[in-house]
Amino acid sequence: MKVNDNTLYVPEDYQARMLICSMYDNILSVKAPFIMDLFSIVEEVVEIYSQRIDNISQNSLDERIKNEITKNYLERMTYDSLKMSYKTFLKLLFITTDKDAERNAYGLFAFVYAMTDHIRKNGFERLFKEEDVRKKLLSISIENLENSSERKQSLIELILNFPILLDIIKEDVSLFEYISNEILLNPNGIKYYRLFYPRSNKTPYEFFKDNSIVQQPLYSMTLYDAVKESVDFDLAEFSKILINKVPPYNGFNDADGFMYFFKRHLNDMAIEDIDSVMSIYRRNGQCTGRSRHSTDYQEVSKYLEEHKVHDTSEDESN
Questions:
Q1: Is the pLDDT of residue 19 over 80?
Q2: C-alpha–C-alpha distance, residues 141 and 288, integer Å
Q3: Residues 164-179, buried b or exposed e (16+ Cβ, 10 A)?
Q4: From CA 157, how far away is CA 243, in angstroms rounded?
Q5: Which helix (DSSP H) or strand (DSSP E) does residue 7 occupy?
Q6: Is 35 strand, coil or helix?
Q7: What gap in Å lies between CA 214 and CA 190, rounded to an integer?
Q8: Staple partner for 261: which of 144, 149, 221, 285, CB 3.0–4.6 Å?
Q9: Other CB atoms closer than 10 Å to residue 69's CB: what's the count?
Q10: Cα–Cα distances in Å, from 157 out to 17, 79, 302?
Q11: What are 211-249's pLDDT values in tens digits?
Q12: How many helices (H) and strands (E) does the chain have?
């Protein structure tokens, strides 16, 4: 190549390397035909996915849908086209007030999820540090989330599956506190406490004790699994908190949930603590009025009888 028709341009080594890398990222590693504006060609597909997906949960996105999106579209996109389309889908899923976008939230979620996964797996994490991408995520309003359970659940699933997005959300203190409470003040979500507060001095068990809203006996086993590793965990105290939370009315399911957990941990508790829990149990008609009461009570009583006798015989032998 000549400049001013008389000087041969010779690029520096780093310039040549940058050109080769750019060619690889934008041409050689991308399947043809290339896609620049993803939404313009998948608008109808978004609507189809919205009809196929009737709920999103902590199991993340259906692998078949994610693979379809990746194979049919994302593998034909460059870094720049991914970035442009990612911003478009974030806006449609979380920011715009367009009714069609709200109605197709689950279809939009499918594409945002698949794109986030594709970006991460292909080493494009720097995209999440791009200022215009960060601004889109930090433009999500609490009002929009409160007005749409689909949008709220979409954001929850994205940040639980992709912590890199949570790191960005943390910059908006109000949004972070709102979404963390939506997750952690739910018995099924307290297991994510360290994801949100990795350096907090407060343990998951302390968080459990401080927030009565999560002290739900129906989820005793789930709560136990979430807090049992805390250094300050006390099984007897934990059990007493939950048995005291069985409501005096319409509490049969709560009592069932608690006893399912309690019977499986009798070996881990002192006899006097089991007695103390059962004393509370006997005073609650929702516990004693259940169809499973006789079976549960007999099982615990048998355990107490056997181990009290065992303890007595040990004392006598000494």
A1: no
A2: 47
A3: ebbebbeebeebbebb
A4: 31
A5: strand 7-8
A6: strand
A7: 8
A8: 221
A9: 23
A10: 39, 24, 45
A11: 999 999 999 999 999 999 999 999 999 999 999 999 999
A12: 19, 2
